[in-house]
Design goal:
heterodimer; A: mainly alpha; 9 helices; globular; B: mainly alpha; two-stranded antiparallel sheet
């Protein structure tokens, strides 16, 4: 249990997707002009991350990893399909996003109006794909740890984009040098936020 | 051959600093020059080849499922690059870790396919992809140059700052440890954008 909490907290603050690994920067820069839309995208990322990561984890452990096919028959134990993982992960992500969009549209139209426009963007959001690849690389022991990592990394991304959106809203009143306006200052601000987040690094979990 | 297709993305329509695409998988590999260079080349190869293939297929892909087809073609090339790196440059492939896989979700590739390859013939698409990949690689190399030189005093692993300058050897110089940390990559890119936009406005 402690292990799970530690993974959860670690993936929000210390291994934050944006500040430590720069994942999902494209939509982070493009959709952080105001807090409301940023929050919408952030929540959508949390939801998609929480669904795709466990699915990819199961696929990885039951089909792709070396020796993982032995549950079908012992003869297949020597097969290593891990080179296919990129294509499997991206296919899962793209189809989950597509299905989620249809389900949300059918059952909760109000939520669809808020989240709908962001869902297609998420299919190519590196934070999702990166989450799956980190899950594969770090070899989480069971589904609970994977779920903790999924929730943590999604929430960490959400916190980051809402934070920068709030700062950018305030920034519109300040006098930034002309060529630095917009993207340039956003990069530098993200860097400064990253330095602030690095103060969590000393925490022992 | 149209040279503008190759040179424009390297300079005035650079995918990273002007169009703000493909930053995702990039910045974490810029602590040292060597992985940055390999990453830049890998992206250039994948962008060029997948643009070319999808341009060949452009009249046969039904528009409704084109995103999936694009992802599959891109993923195939990324798998090839990944396997090649593992076979011939294992150390670098370990350093790049998940970021090779993340080339799939690099917005530059999808962006160039959607914006250029689906409406043009294979050869110009290949050149356009190559140019954009190189433009991206160039930014990676510049960032990595600054970070490696000031962060560890080396370039490609060779010592550039003379050893006798260091405080440990009785000199006055110390490496800037902040340069190695992730946030500095963002700040360096921010500064590059600032410089580039100032120059472009003067012209």
């Amino acid at each position: 249990m402690e292990n799970i909490i530690s993974i959860f907290v670690k993936s929000i603050f210390i291994d934050n997707m944006i500040f430590a690994f720069f994942l999902g920067m494209c939509s982070y820069i493009a959709v952080s002009k105001n807090v409301k839309t940023a929050l919408g995208l952030g929540i959508a990322v949390v939801v998609v991350q929480f669904i795709t990561l466990p699915v990819n984890y199961l696929l990885n452990t039951c089909l792709l990893m070396p020796g993982s096919l032995s549950w079908i028959s012992p003869e297949l134990a020597g097969i290593d399909l891990s080179f296919l993982s990129f294509i499997v992960f991206i296919a899962v992500i793209a189809s989950v996003v597509q299905i989620l969009e249809m389900v949300i549209e059918k059952y909760t139209p109000t939520l669809y109006n808020q989240l709908g426009i962001f869902l297609p963007l998420i299919a190519v959001n590196c934070a999702i794909m990166g989450g799956s690849l980190f899950m594969q690389e770090r070899e989480y022991a069971n589904l609970c740890e994977t779920l903790a990592f999924a929730a943590g990394s999604g929430i960490g991304w959400c916190v980051a984009i809402v934070g920068i959106a709030a700062i950018r809203e305030k920034m519109s009143y300040s006098n930034v040098p002309e060529p630095l306006r917009g993207v340039g200052i956003t990069f530098i601000l993200t860097g400064l936020m990253g330095i602030a987040f690095m103060s969590f690094m000393g925490i022992k979990l | 051959m149209n040279w503008k297709l190759l040179t424009d993305p390297i300079g005035k329509s650079n995918p990273v600093t002007v169009l703000i695409l493909g930053i995702c998988s990039a910045l974490a590999v810029t602590v040292k020059l060597e992985p940055a260079l390999v990453m830049g080349l890998a992206v250039a190869v994948v962008t060029a080849c997948s643009s070319c293939i999808l341009s060949l297929l452009r009249n046969t892909i039904p528009p409704r499922i084109r995103i999936i087809v694009q992802l599959v073609v891109v993923a195939t090339f990324v798998i090839l690059v990944d396997q090649l790196l593992r076979a011939f440059a294992y150390d670098i492939s370990k350093q790049l870790s998940v970021f090779v896989g993340l080339i799939i979700t690099n917005c530059i590739i999808m962006g160039r396919i959607e914006a250029f390859a689906l409406g043009n013939r294979p050869w110009p698409s290949f050149i356009d992809g190559l140019g954009n990949g190189l433009g991206y690689g160039m930014i990676l190399v510049i960032v990595a140059f600054v970070r490696e030189l000031f962060g560890s005093g080396t370039l490609f692993g060779y010592q550039i700052i003379p050893e006798s300058w260091y405080i440990a050897n009785g000199g006055f110089y110390a490496d800037n440890g902040l340069m190695i940390l992730p946030p500095m990559a963002l700040i360096v890119v921010g500064l590059i954008i600032w410089i580039q936009r100032s120059i472009m406005r003067i012209n």
